[in-house]
């Protein structure tokens, strides 16, 4: 069994090894069910095919994070690594300068937009993974042998899969496209914590009334800050339904709070005081500073339906996952003449948007040929 690295000297040695490596594989095990910030329980680093398991519950990992995010650091290979890299960002304030995500790359190789790790192990290595320990308690110490072996396999299999996916991309002529997408993947905005002032935008609202949206924004910002402060899930502080009811029909007395749907009983008096202060602050906000309603989504159209057929046709022809080429919402925006920037340049424009423009202007038409859709 791979021993746990659980003291500063061994972490420093591992950090030195990372600095001296061209490529490392990386994974983490964490618990996020009852937290706002995921609780990091185990870190796996693979170097030259050998797994190193690090115990963040026992020692500081600062030197390791510094080695991973250094400008001249190694290529960090992950699978579906957004949550893992978000942890690195929270610990270090940055993410690695170079990343290769095998799930993202596999989306260019006919494996679908969200291929599971076990699926890639099967497809590229012709092996089956032991998924039993996946939902284990990763805080247990000593770490059971089966869990340690499972965790180590995450990075040792990844070291074998990585060159095979790279070769697959090269064979398909999609290396450059995958590199472009990884640059977009590493955009700094992707890794920033939720801005409390913008938290309301991710919630469903049933109104365009700016005064109501102002209360909604203040309440969502308070909940975001409170959840981060006490490190508990947002819904544990206040459910989306309760937050919406408070915004739409703000209580005018402590007693009225009891009629708000799903208002918590636990700590009710403290919550009532805090939320009353939030609603009072919202009421004092100048109307010029009230939030503007989000732009309405473009209405479904026949043009968007044709573009979806074209997108799926391109996906079938290239092997690139349809959802990676363009989402349904992006197709509607493209049909309405307001496509997102990433559809207007790079690999998407080359393989899809340029042809979509010809469809929208009538220079290319859809028809059936021997029972198959063709654009010509």
Describe this structure in words.
It is a single chain. With 376 residues, the protein is α/β, with parallel strands linked by helices. 47% of the residues lie in helices and 11% in strands. The protein contains 15 helices and 8 strands. A hairpin with a 2-residue loop joins strand 7 and strand 8 (372-375). Helix 5 crosses helix 6. The longest helix has 28 residues, at 145-172. It starts with a strand and ends with a strand. The relative contact order is 0.09.
Topology:
Elements: E1 4-5, H1 8-19, E2 23-31, E3 39-47, E4 50-54, H2 62-69, E5 75-78, H3 82-92, E6 99-101, H4 102-106, H5 117-125, H6 145-172, H7 175-185, H8 210-230, H9 234-237, H10 240-248, H11 268-283, H12 302-318, H13 322-325, H14 328-335, H15 346-360, E7 366-369, E8 372-375
Parallel strand pairs: 1-4, 2-5, 5-6
Antiparallel strand pairs: 2-3, 3-4, 7-8
Helix pairs in contact: 1-2, 5-6, 8-10, 8-11, 12-14, 12-15
